[in-house]
Amino acid sequence: xxxxxxxxxxxxxxxxxxxxxxxxxxxxxxxxxxxxxxxxxxxxxxxxxxxxxxxxxxxxxxxxxxxxxxxxxxxxxxxxxxxxxxxxxxxxxxxxxxxxxxxxxxxxxxxxxxxxxxxxxxxxxxxxxxxxxxxxxxxxxxxxxxxxxxxxxxxxxxxxxxxxxxxxxxxxxxxxxxxxxxxxxxxxxxxxxxxxxxxxxxxxxxxxxxxxxxxxxxxxxxxxxxxxxxxxxxxxxxxxxxxxxxxxxxxxxxxxxxxxxxxxxxxxxxxxxxxxxxxxxxxxxxxxxxxxxxxxxxxxxxxxxxxxxxxxxxxxxxxxxxxxxxxxxxxxxxxxxxxxxxxx
Length: 344
Description:
By secondary structure, the chain is mostly helical.
């Protein structure tokens, strides 16, 4: 019993020799939970291995968030001074003078809003190299999680490394475009917003179009990295098919994206209401331990089904519904029973 449990934990159901149809998942929902339970430790190991690729982005975002928190504390303290006339424990007259000069007559809330607006362009520019370097790593993770999600074997390190080596160019192209999305979206949204205020509401159309196109691109990333490792396809065709699949399965793809954001939303929500830095530390810990690998695993479980339905089923000789029970398993069991009967 113990040996069976350990075999299932490390290798999954595909590693069992006496595997029967009744043991196989009957649907993709069951397959997802079975494989997640089996591969949970592998996802943690892979996440810890590749975490360094996201470390610059986490440091960048963390630095900006902490800076904003500090400024909020300073402005709140200054607002209390304006109301009560008392300096308090952390405020000096020199600091009050510097703040008055810096704020230039603006209200504290307006000063914070302007501070955020002024910091966004530089943040977007710094995001470019930080996002760019994650592309090849995501391609490697897409290969491993694709196999794990359909109950096939893959080594967390060696297969990941081989996939990165084979697909790093296309992965870099996709992450390169993704890295430009924040600065393009922000600049375009701001420009057309100003045009709409001065020259009419017509410019709200391109403003909303930019936001829509950016959202579709982010949704298409769910498919692009799995397409890279699954099919031999040119880069333009890769982008085209990723966007088409994202639009064709728009509600489901949005749902998958929202599901992967749940831990972040919870932690940010707790921080928003409590201002506890422990919530932010919990969010960082989640992504350090498993967050990136789990997100890619969820995407793989979803895209495996989409590929089987829209692509693999139309390709001659390509097996579909891997990891799920099928009629062929009944035939295999009957053949095995006949062989056992004859041997007896």
